[in-house]
Every structure is written in C-alpha cells, then in structure tokens.
C-alpha cells in the first residue's frame, strides 16, 4: 500500500528518505535534460552519439531549486496549501520541467511526453534544442508565471500574485546573484504593502550558492550576523538552512519549513480573527547550498561543485575522458532505484507529490486565465465631456478619466480584482477622483497628515519604484485580475525591458492552447514630453513607443488619444482586451477638447480618420494633407491649418488624426494596419503630407516605409531639444509648433509663388516675436495661449 504523507510533524526519517529519492530523481532528470539524446535510463553504456552535439543550459541553481520544490510538495500535502513557486534565478528551467514531469502534470499538458522510457527520452531531447523548449522557466513550463530571462522581478511578481488572494502562498526562490539587481534589492520592501487579512503570503527563499556566472555574490560572502541584520532591517525574520549533506539538509529544511508555516498561520489567524492589519514581521528562508550541488566535483583539475564553474554546463564534453565523467555523474543518482523498468517513477515516490490542482504545475493561479473574471465597467459614454464647438473648451483628459476609474473600483468592490499601479504619481497624473472610494496601500507607520493611506488600500502608488509597480501589476494580471500602470512618459523607459519581457511571454502564450488568456497589460504615459515647464530636458523622452513598436504585432498596441472623449473610449477598449500590451499616451494638462463623444466613438473605433470639420477639400483632391498623432501635435497641426486657411483660403487641406498608431502599418504587417487601398484613400499617392507626431519622427517613417507616398511625407516630432521653458517654446525648439508647420507646408507647395513667400516671412517673424516675448514676459504669446479653433 502506498504510504501517504501524514500530519505527523516533524517528518519521519523514513519519509525524508523518500523525499531524498524524489530529489535525486529530479536532479537526474534535470542533468539528463542538459546532455542526453538517447538511453534515458542508462540501460546501456553511454556513447558519443547519445549526447547532444551542442549542450546549452544551466546547472548551478538547479539542485537547490529541486530541493525547494520537493519540500514545497511536502508542505502542500501536509497543510493543504494553495501554493505557487516562482524561480527567481532565471536559468535552470530544467528543474521546473523535471518536477512537473515527476508529478504527472507535464504529461497531462503534453501527452507526447509520456510517463515511460520513450516519453523520458523526448523530455530530454527537447530541452534547449531546436524545435523544443527554452532553458528558462518559460511560458511552456506548467506552473510558471515568471520566466526570469531578465533577473530581478521574482518578488515583485510574487507580491502582485498574492494581492487580494488571501489563501495563496507565493514561494519565491531568489538567487543570490539576482539579489544584487536594483529591482530585487527594492523588492525586500514589498512587505510594507501586504495586508495580512486580505492578501496572501510571499515566502522568499534566498538561495546562497555563493557565485554568479564568474564572480562571488555579495550576499554569499556576507557573515551570518550581517545577513540577520540586513533582513531584520528590511522587516523580515530570516530562518537559516545551511549545509551540503543531503539527509541533514532535508531534516533542517523540513523542520524549518514547519516552523515557517506555523508562523504564517499564526500571523494570519491573529490578523483575521482580530481584524488587525498591523504589519507583521513575515518569515523568509535563507538556504545556503553549494553551487551545482550533487554535480561533478572536479573536471579537468578544476573544482566544479561549490564554484562558479558549475553555473552553466559542468562538463563541456570536448574531451574523450568527459564521457566517463558524465556517465559517473548520471549514474550517481541511481535511476534504477527511482524508476521502474518502463521508466515510470516508483509509486511510493509519486505519492510524495500533491494531486490535481494542488500540484505546483497545475495550480490555477499559475495559469491565471482560468481564474479570470470579466471586469465590470461603467458606460464610458456617461463620462462624456461636453465640448461645445470643436476646440471651444479646455479641460484635462486624465482628470476627466478619473471618475470613470473611480467607478470601476465601485463596481468591482466585491470582486476585489482591480488595482492602479503608479510610482508616487497618482495625484500628479490627475487621478485624485479614485480617492472618493479607495485608498493607497500602505502598511507602515502613518500620520494624520498623510493622504488616503490604508493597509487595505488598492491604489498602489506609495512606492517610488517603477520596477515594483510594473512587477506588481504583471503578477496581478498573471493570476487573473485587472489593472493599469500610469507613469511619467520619460520614466517609462525604466521598465522598457519588463514590458518587453511580458510582451514576449504573451506572444508565446498565444501559441499555447492550454494557457488561458489574461487581462492586457495597460501602460499609460501621462506626463509627456510636450509640457515639462517645471522639470525640463530630463523629463522629455517619448522613446517607449519606439521600443514597444518593435515587439510582436500580435501583442502590442499603441494609442494616442487627442482629447478626453477619445481617452475614455480608448481606455474602455483597452480594459476589455486580453493578452495585449496596450500603450496609451495621454495628456494631464489643460488642452482644447475636439470631439464630441459620438464623434470620438466613431473615430477611436476606426483608429484613424479625416476630421471633416478641420478639412476643406471635400469633393476634390487636396493640395496637401496634414496628419497628426498625439494631443499636443494635434493642437499645433490644427493651429497651423487655421493659419493656412485664413491666409491662403484657396488652398485645399485634408486633416487626418491618428489614434491607433499601427494603422500606419500595412495590414500584412499588423492586424490593425490599413490596406494600401485604404491608406491611399486617406493620404493620397501623390500629395505632400505634413505629419506632426508625438514622438521621434523616425518611428512614423519606419511605419510608413512601404507606403506609396512615403517620400512625400515630412514628419515633425521630438528632436531631443528642450529645457525649462514655456510649453510652446518646447514645441518651437522641436519644430512641431504651428509656425514651423506652416513653413514646412509652404516649402512643399512651390506653386504658391509670391503668396507663399510672404506667408513664410510672416512665420519667421512670428518665431522671432515668440522668442522675444517669452524672454521678456516668461509666458507664451497671448495669441498662442488663448488660441481657439474657429469652424
């Protein structure tokens, strides 16, 4: 009869012996994934043809992560825990695959990788092999929500996962190399935002194996007392498990984890029974093990186990004697004691793993679309701004969006599945309306003067870290919930790579039928390049768009709503989507409002269109096309058109506004792209186009490269010019202002002759007048600051 885990605490020696065998099995499968093409159970002597020609992968962190996995299995069974595991070290995805295979979850999702010798051979061959699976804990890996291709985000993702998940434990292996990254160093402060009543638990397990790829680690060389002092200072209680003897370590780990789980349950019971959200001192584990534990001791006269040389492939297989070394190493795990003749894990070992959805590889939180609940959204049209006539009234777009966001919180109060993430910028970005119904998350000391702080708050802007806010949101989305991230446009660049990694994750997930869709990653840039009159040059960088525009067309979307009603329509659309990265560039400053809600819905649904009220070419071909994308470029383009129409009334001008930037791409390159026929109907094939753009001009040139009239398009945009000056002067310095736009148009209309020359001179005079005025008065010309569109 199969022995099942009992509620006996501490674990019996017999049970620990079985755990050690399970660990050996995981180590064996992990090592074989690196090397073997054939002979998975080593029934025959190894020969060179059984070895992969190119060995790619990592070993150094793998044995310790296998060790953690088997102990997490014990805890799940013993305490019936809802637990997911995040692998922070990044490399060594073979460990996660090995454990998924041992508990059967891998074969359930990938039936071709069967629980027998043939399936084991396929498991080994596919790893880090053309047509196979990556070497990281990739989307293809059941149970993974964190790839770790870029280090530093494991605790942030874990913390996002446990927000509003009171019964979830996110055990997180943190590599001691990873712990040296900026995001991870900041992540130790995440305990200040965890509510012990309504949130789950992040359980960091810092694995000190002593080395990075070629150097010792800082944490690995810190003394015991220094480690204690560091983590006490960060608000954690560290529990140490240190050594290299397997059975001694299993006993230490089991006893320590029993103590840790008891402490977690004690904290939660007190908080929930007493309704006391006071921040506790959460436990964490420091696991000190040799790098490449149980691997080859010495190769070519150099120490491998316990040294940086164990980081990647411990035996390079570039010498004849390496074959015997590999054979000895793999045989040291004694696969014949772990698997039967058919290659199936022995039943008494399989019984150590949890069953069903309690298996780490099958936990629904690690496939968040399973738990996805549709977000309840108010009707965005109810928040319409009454524009009067086109451009008659000024207003602040994000401030007007605030009540809509506020009411999302209200409508989803019972579900607790929506949060805002913003690095100390919620007020600056004009979302104060949400504080009518919600508070900021804060579980540290507070004073009476603080603004809307609460341990139960769900506005995540009390930490000045773009990395943490983005990571929290990603973890929140990956476990089935909803939210958005708003930040200053220039500092969105801090999370360039995070957003790119998430886009890559989604791209792969879209190819995996078993990965259920999650809410889109919505990123809003609010303090934009075009108005930084109190910050200046350092706060001017629209390059996030360029970065994301290069990502997979099936995943990324970029929107530039020109006013409030377009922003409302765009935000509503983005919050309804799944498996996208939506980038929204929005204004927080007072700006003219152009479109009624009815007009905005039509415009945003199409993503691009002619504004007939700003055009005068109806019924005939235009002489020139003005196009724009972004709120400030739209304002200046309309002002330029008004000058041209007043000074040269016979000139026929078509005005186009772009909300969905990828409309500019051909339909063959992006799902949102226009066909050539549609594009040519808007922009013509043979007329000059002045395109006023929010970001760097090269992006528009790249997007329109294959269009018929691309050589006739002149793009104005940000040119890396700026300082602390007036808003209009920043536009002048970058040639996106109305006066420069008129000059650009005249240069492309040589048939105007003398009339064009006089208007060109007039624009030159205006530019001089502008500079003199701001240097004298400190503000923009009244004709600029008070300008209104006249129909």
UniProtKB/TrEMBL annotation:
Cofactor(s) of this protein:
thiamine diphosphate
Q: Which UniProt keywords apply?
A: Lyase, Thiamine pyrophosphate
Q: What is its EC number?
A: 4.1.2.-
Q: Which residue range or ranges hold the Xylulose 5-phosphate/Fructose 6-phosphate phosphoketolase C-terminal domain?
A: 588-789
> What Gene3D superfamilies does the annotation carry?
3.40.50.920, 3.40.50.970
Ranges of residues in domain Xylulose 5-phosphate/Fructose 6-phosphate phosphoketolase N-terminal: 12-370
In its keyword annotation, does this UniProt entry include Lyase?
Answer: yes
Does this UniProt record's set of keywords contain Lyase? yes
Q: Read off the CDD domains from this record.
A: TPP_PK
Under the heading PANTHER family, the entry gives: PHOSPHOKETOLASE-RELATED (PTHR31273)
Record protein name field: Probable phosphoketolase
């Amino acid at each position: 009869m199969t022995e099942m885990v009992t509620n006996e605490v501490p674990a019996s020696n017999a049970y620990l012996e079985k755990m050690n065998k399970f660990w050996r099995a995981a180590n064996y499968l992990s090592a074989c994934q690196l090397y073997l093409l054939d002979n998975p159970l080593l029934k025959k002597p190894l020969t060179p043809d059984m070895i992969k020609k190119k060995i790619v992968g990592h070993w150094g962190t793998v044995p310790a992560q296998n060790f953690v996995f088997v102990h997490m299995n014990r805890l799940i069974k013993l305490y019936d825990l809802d637990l997911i595991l995040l692998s922070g070290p990044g490399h060594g995805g073979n460990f996660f695959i090995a454990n998924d295979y041992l508990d059967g979850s891998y074969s359930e999702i990938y039936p071709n990788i069967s629980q027998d010798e043939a399936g084991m051979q396929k498991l080994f061959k596919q790893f880090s092999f053309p047509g196979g699976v990556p070497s990281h804990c990739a989307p293809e890996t059941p149970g993974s929500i964190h790839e770790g291709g870029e280090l530093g985000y494991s605790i942030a993702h874990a913390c996002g996962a446990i927000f509003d998940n009171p019964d979830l434990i996110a055990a997180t292996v943190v590599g001691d190399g990873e712990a040296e990254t900026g995001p991870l160093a900041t992540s130790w402060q995440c305990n200040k935002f965890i509510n012990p009543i309504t949130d789950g638990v992040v359980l960091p397990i810092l694995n000190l194996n002593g080395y990075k790829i070629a150097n010792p680690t800082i944490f690995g060389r810190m003394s015991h007392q220094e480690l204690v002092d560091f983590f006490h200072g960060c608000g954690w209680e560290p529990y140490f498990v240190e050594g290299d003897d397997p059975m001694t370590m299993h006993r230490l780990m089991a006893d320590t984890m029993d103590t840790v789980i008891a402490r977690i349950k004690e904290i939660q019971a007190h908080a929930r029974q007493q309704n006391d959200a006071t921040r506790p001192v959460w436990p964490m584990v420091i696991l000190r093990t040799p790098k490449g534990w149980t691997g080859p001791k010495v190769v070519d006269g150099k120490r491998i186990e316990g040294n940086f040389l164990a980081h990647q492939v411990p035996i390079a297989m570039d010498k004849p004697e390496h074959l015997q070394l590999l054979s000895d190493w793999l045989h040291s795990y004694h696969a014949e004691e772990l698997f039967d003749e058919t290659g199936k894990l022995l039943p008494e070992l399989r019984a150590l793993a949890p069953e069903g959805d309690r298996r780490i590889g099958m936990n629904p939180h690690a496939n968040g679309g399973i738990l996805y609940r549709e977000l309840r959204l108010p009707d965005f049209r109810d928040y319409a701004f009454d524009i009067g006539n086109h451009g008659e009234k000024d207003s602040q777009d994000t401030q007007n969006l605030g009540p809509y966001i506020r009411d999302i919180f209200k409508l989803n109060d019972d579900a607790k599945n929506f949060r805002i993430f913003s690095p100390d910028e919620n007020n600056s970005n004009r979302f104060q309306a949400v504080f009518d119904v919600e508070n900021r998350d804060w579980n540290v000391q507070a004073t009476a003067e603080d603004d809307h702080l609460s341990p139960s708050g769900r506005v995540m802007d009390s930490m000045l870290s773009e990395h943490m806010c983005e990571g929290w949101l990603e973890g929140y989305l990956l476990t089935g919930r909803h939210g958005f991230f708003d930040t200053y446009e220039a500092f969105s660049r801090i999370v360039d790579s995070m957003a790119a990694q998430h886009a890559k994750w989604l791209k792969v997930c879209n190819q995996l039928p078993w990965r259920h869709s999650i809410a889109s990653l919505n990123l809003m840039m609010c303090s934009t390049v075009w108005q930084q009159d109190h910050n200046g040059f350092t706060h001017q960088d629209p390059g996030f768009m360029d970065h994301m525009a290069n990502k997979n067309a099936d995943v990324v979307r970029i929107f530039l709503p020109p006013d409030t009603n377009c922003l409302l329509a765009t935000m509503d659309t983005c919050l309804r989507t799944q498996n996208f990265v939506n980038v929204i560039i929005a204004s927080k400053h007072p700006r003219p409002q152009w479109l009624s809600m009815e007009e905005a819905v039509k415009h945003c649904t199409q993503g691009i269109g002619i504004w007939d009220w700003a055009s005068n070419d109806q019924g005939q071909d235009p002489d020139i096309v003005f196009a724009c994308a972004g709120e400030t470029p739209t304002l200046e383009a309309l002002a330029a058109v008004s000058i041209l129409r007043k000074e040269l009334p016979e000139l026929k001008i078509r005005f186009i506004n772009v909300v969905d930037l990828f409309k500019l791409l051909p339909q063959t390159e992006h799902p949102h792209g226009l066909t050539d026929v549609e594009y040519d109907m808007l922009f013509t094939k043979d007329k000059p186009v002045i395109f006023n753009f929010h970001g760097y001009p090269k992006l528009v040139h790249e997007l329109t490269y294959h269009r018929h009239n691309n050589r006739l398009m002149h793009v104005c945009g940000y040119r890396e010019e700026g300082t602390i000056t007036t808003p209009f002067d920043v536009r002048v310095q970058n040639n996106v202002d109305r006066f420069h736009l008129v000059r650009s148009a005249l240069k492309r209309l040589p048939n105007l002759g003398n009339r064009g020359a006089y208007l060109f001179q007039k624009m030159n005079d205006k530019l001089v007048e502008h500079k003199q005025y701001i240097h004298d008065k400190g503000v923009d010309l009244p004709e600029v600051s008070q300008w209104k569109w006249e129909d």
